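This entry is listed below:
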Amino acid sequence: MAYQDYSWTSRSAGGTQYYEPNWSSFMNNYNIGGRDNGSNATRTYSWNVYFNNYGKQKFWTAVDDYGYVWINGAYQFSMGGFNSQTSRTTPGYFAPGTYTISASTVNSGGGPWGVALDWYGYDPPPPPSINSFYASPNPQYSSGGSPAYNSTLTWSATSQTSVSGNITGPNYSVNISGTSGSVDVNNLPQSTVGSNSPAQASYTITLYNNGGSGSTSTTISVYNDNILSNFNTWTNSFGNLEPNTQYALSLGTIQGVDMPIVVSSGAAATNFGTNNGVWGNPRTFTNGQTVFMQTTTLPFNTVVDTNGLFGNNNTKTVPVTVGGSGVYNVSVVTKAPRISEDFDISDVVNQLPNPDIDVIPGSPNTYITTGNISIDDIEVAAEVKTNQADAQINVNGSGWQNMREI
């Protein structure tokens, strides 16, 4: 059978009891003892005792001449002398359960011998002491250009016994064990759009052992708003641009975000920058920076419009993705070219074309050439033709040459 710790003494199983005037009252009341004339006689007694509480077990002890205590065969302590009662505590912790307590007494020189024990309590372990509890990264700046919602919580604690516990936070709860470790958080909150200030989430760790509990908290700041507050003011059309020309076009300024954002486009030969000579696609920007788009305009559209003076605009559409604000189309418009020339021609008489262009050498029947004609209206290359079979043209002093007839 197993005796309950709170009612057990060395007398619980009976056995020979001895009285010795030199012993303390505790020794006389609780001993198993006797007297002999031999020397160095060792006697050992054992009891099955049920410990009801987790802790270091405490005993009153006395012995004549000297003795030791084991629990389940493991040495615990020596016992005090016979003229008083001595408090002894096991060096280690015992969980609730049945254990075999063994006590020995050694009679070193003959005469009285005895051993006395009384369980009287236990020392529970101290609660866990949490040395550190922190998050990394903290703050979470979403540095990759995409909103981030993750961090890692790490803890370290001191405990005399095994530890279990949990970590809780907004929409988050996880069971943990051990005096150190880490867990991931993947559902950090979203910072308020346009506020340019972080969201915050607090997490509490609670650790338990047989002596109680300990807890502490940490707060994570989260920067993950990549939606512009002024996106509707960004420029989406650039007109009257020269053909085949590279431009750096100012789209708008990053405002209202609390993290770096990425600007990109799938269009060929398109890059982004801050107009400082460093261009890329995609490109990362921060709050307050102005985004420029580098692109080349299309050539002239020479399809004639209804009045015959101009061609048509030539529009290039560039899709641009701006952080979490979405995609918008930027129109890059090459201006409509002038395709008709206004001529202001004055007659010049008594001058002969050279070479002679009629059929009778030396006898021309045309004596008129025009004055210089400046072609300064038309914006595209065009052929000059005439409705006169015997007319010639001299371009920039390059010599007279025939024209095709209309």
About this structure: The chain has a mean pLDDT of 90.
